């Protein structure tokens, strides 16, 4: 029985240390013991708009402490973001485009008082609603565009003590009220149907006839993207046929920010590569929705 008891004790100690690490404040406290714990939305971290968001702020403290209040701030914005791929490409453009504010408000969680020793839980609740008439956008982390929603919680402990701080990002999904029609699209590809091809290149291209069909150009994200490609005729051997999903991020700029400044679109490309090196591409804009 002794080894089993030792295992239980070790497991409990490990869990306590793991909880301490997970709940560690981003701003170190003076005694390294008082921690602002997890901000836990419930029942899930994926929110629909409008929806009541409920959760708890958990504070772990072995001795307890006095505080000047527990406050929360909820922010959501769409903005440009610089990355290693875009550094130097549009730095001045980035500085001139202000973020599009989607959500911003403050929420009191607890008045000034004292946190008792142990683990304390402070419930909170708010309605996820856009500022004024602003529609919420889905959470998105792209190469150039980012749509992000965060809950920031602060516990003020006095003038001479560092405040406790915790930030949590939550995901927002915006489903459509009604599903879109499938809008299937058929295609026929021949040398004559190609665009942006030089006449001399077109004359040297072997004849081919490719047909197919995209079953849905309006695609629910929970269903597979399907279609068919038929090689009706090809005078030159075909090396490969590929289907590509392309994400296009665009930003409109006119001395500031407009409501429709940020746009994310999706396209599919059918790419056919011949053994002689010729390559043809057919493009289909598609819409992804929930």
TrEMBL record:
One Pfam family matching this protein: Vps26
GO biological process, one term: intracellular protein transport
Gene3D superfamilies named among the record's database cross-references: 2.60.40.640
InterPro entries, A to Z: Arrestin-like_C (IPR014752), Vps26-related (IPR028934)
Family stated for the protein in its record: Belongs to the VPS26 family.
Cross-referenced PANTHER family: VACUOLAR PROTEIN SORTING 26 RELATED
Name of the protein this chain belongs to: Down syndrome critical region protein 3
